[in-house]
What we know:
By secondary structure, the chain is of the alpha+beta class. It contains three helices and seven strands.
Amino acid sequence: MSTGRRAARPDTASEKSLARYLGTAVMAALLVALAAVAALVIVVPAVSGASALTVLTSSMAPKFPPGTLLVVRPTEVDDIAVGQVLTYQIESGRPAVVSHRVVERSVELDGSVSFTTKGDNNAVADPDPVREVQVKGTLWYAIPLLGWINNVVTGESRAVLVPVAAGLLFAYTAYLVVGSLLHASRRKKRRGQGPRKAATR
Length: 201
């Protein structure tokens, strides 16, 4: 009578192995995507001196609907041209800003520059010209929907959430790497032992 352990079906073992690898690949892809988002939303703006802003109205729709993340970098006034999206203070020295497209550039006799702006979705241009002192910068790049996340992860919450999220990502990455190494080590040992013969009486 045979009392040895019944060997696992090859197809079952293969299915488990395939599922494990697929799961690891999916999680790795997710980690890469999260890292890319973090870089675009937090790291790149911080390193370059740019600002991440969220579109709150439909004045720039359909290209930049509400929820779009706009990354705005400082730009010299002389380099701002018609057609660019300009971010400016509604009132000089106040934090509230607007991002509209430049439709006209004017140079006064004293050499000062001003801009006429208009929302892509607005029928008429903005009533007041934008003076140099109001200019914050021009659009560098935009990412749909991420603006809502940017609104949540701001100020004090950003200072807490970013390190925590980074720590969790690194911890999970380490878990995946260690798990893969242990799995590979077990498979190597099983191969070295070779097939076991069933015990008989």
